[in-house]
Design brief:
The protein is of the alpha/beta class and 170 residues long. 33% of the residues lie in helices and 18% in strands. The radius of gyration is 15 Å and the shape is globular.
C-alpha cells in the first residue's frame, strides 16, 4: 500500500477570537496544496481514500486533494489524526484499510513526522513543512518490515526521491 502523509497547508495565524480547530487555509495555502496535488497526480500517485484530521485546515486540505483526484476518492474524518494523536493507534487503523492501494493521511505536526519515522524505522526524520507530502510504500502483510521511501513533495521545491535528501529538505 502507498501511504501519502500530508501536512495541512498554510492556515491563518492563531487569533484570540478564533479557536485553533477553526483556523482555515490562506489563499497561499490553497494554491500550494493544489500544486502538490497536480504533482502527485502527474506521478500517478492518486489516493482512493483520504483520511483527515477533524480540524478545518486539514479538512480543507483533504478536500482540495480529493477534488483533484476525482469523484472516486473518498474522504473520511478521524480523531486519530489530531496533533496529539497516538501514532501506533494510527498505524493499527491503517491495517483496517487493506482494500485500498493508496491512502492519504492529512494532519498535523508533530504526529506526522513521528508517524513517518515509525514507518521508516528512521530516527532522523524532521518535521514536515506545511503542505508537504511524503509517500511511502508500506507492506500490510509484513508489519515489521520497514516502509520504503517513495518521494517527498514540498510546495515550491523539487520533488525529492531519496530519503537522505528528503530529511535534509523537510
Amino acid at each position: 500500500m502507498l501511504v501519502h502523509i500530508l501536512r495541512h497547508a498554510e492556515a491563518i495565524e492563531p487569533r484570540e477570537e478564533l479557536r485553533d480547530e477553526w483556523r482555515y487555509l490562506t489563499d497561499k495555502g490553497m494554491k500550494s496544496v493544489e500544486g502538490v496535488a497536480r504533482r502527485l497526480i502527474k506521478q500517478d500517485l492518486r489516493p482512493s481514500l483520504i483520511i483527515s484530521s477533524p480540524r478545518v485546515r486539514a479538512i480543507q486540505t483533504a478536500q482540495i486533494m480529493a477534488d483533484a483526484c476525482g469523484r472516486t476518492t473518498k474522504v473520511e474524518i478521524s480523531g486519530l489524526l489530531q496533533p496529539d494523536g497516538d501514532v501506533f493507534e494510527l498505524i493499527q487503523f491503517l491495517y483496517q484499510r487493506t482494500k485500498f492501494k493508496q491512502i492519504m493521511l492529512v494532519g498535523h505536526e508533530p504526529q506526522l513526522s513521528t508517524l513517518t519515522a515509525a514507518l521508516l524505522h528512521h530516527e532522523g526524520t524532521r518535521p514536515l513543512k506545511k503542505g508537504s507530502c511524503v509517500v511511502l510504500d508500506f507492506s500490510m502483510k509484513k508489519p515489521d518490515k520497514t516502509a520504503r521511501f517513495r518521494c517527498c513533495i514540498t510546495p515550491g521545491k523539487k520533488t525529492v526521491s531519496t530519503l537522505r535528501k528528503a530529511t535534509a529538505s523537510l
